């Protein structure tokens, strides 16, 4: 099928689904959240890491699957990354789709190859969006202080100043 036609049909279905949600009184946020598996929903509030892979234009996963600190805020995975990293560059180039795995499966990249064990974790597809919301950053850093108390002191100021000067990007991944 022609990719433009596929995109048109997918968009049309999302619009129709959204219209039916409004008609029957459900909120789109609740509908999006319902696409998460029970296992993902259980792990998101407590897992130390998510593994995020931006999706390429053809829907394939990119080669980057790094583990990330994150917070589950307002039904979204929120992270902050350096602006020159693939997750931020993918968003800047219009690639807003990503696949996310939830759980602690160790470092993705080791001295001898990659660790693919994260693939057994609960996963979901998401839409990413860069955010300039300073209050969202404050909430993210407050969560990091609780989840990563031994490490956050070395990163908090870098994250905050990087957000202010644009060298770091705050990303909100909403389940799609």
What does this structure look like?
This protein folds into two domains: 1-34; 36-175, Pnp Oxidase, Chain A (Roll). It is built from six helices and nine strands. It has 176 residues and is an alpha+beta fold. The two termini are 22 Å apart. The strands form two sheets. A seven-stranded antiparallel beta sheet has the order 2-1-5-8-9-4-3, sandwiched between helices. The protein has a two-stranded antiparallel sheet with strand order 6-7. The chain has helices at residues 3-24, 28-33, 38-43, 86-92, 134-147, 152-165, and strands spanning 50-54, 67-68, 71-73, 76-82, 97-102, 109-110, 113-114, 123-131, 168-175.
Question: Any chance you could write out the topology, listing elements then pairs?
Answer:
Blueprint: H1 3-24, H2 28-33, H3 38-43, E1 50-54, E2 67-68, E3 71-73, E4 76-82, H4 86-92, E5 97-102, E6 109-110, E7 113-114, E8 123-131, H5 134-147, H6 152-165, E9 168-175
Antiparallel strand pairs: 1-2, 1-5, 3-4, 4-9, 5-8, 6-7, 8-9
Helix pairs in contact: 5-6
CATH class of the largest domain: Mainly Beta
Main beta sheet, described? 7 strands, antiparallel
**Uncertain stretches of 5 or more adjacent residues:** 12-34
Question: Oligomeric state of the chains?
Answer: single chain
Concise summary:
This protein is of the alpha+beta class. The protein has helices spanning about 5-25, 30-35, 40-45, 85-90, 135-145, 150-165, and strands spanning about 50-55, 65-70, 70-75, 75-80, 95-100, 110, 115, 125-130, 170-175.
